Amino acid sequence: RKAPPSTLLDMGTGTHQEVVLRMSLTATAACAAETVTYPLDFVKTRLQLQGELQRNQTQPKLRALQVASQIIRTEGVFGLYAGLPPALVRHVLYSSTRLLVYEQMRDALAQQPAAPGQAQHVGFGTSLLLG
Question: What does pTM read for this prediction?
Answer without folding.
Answer: 0.67
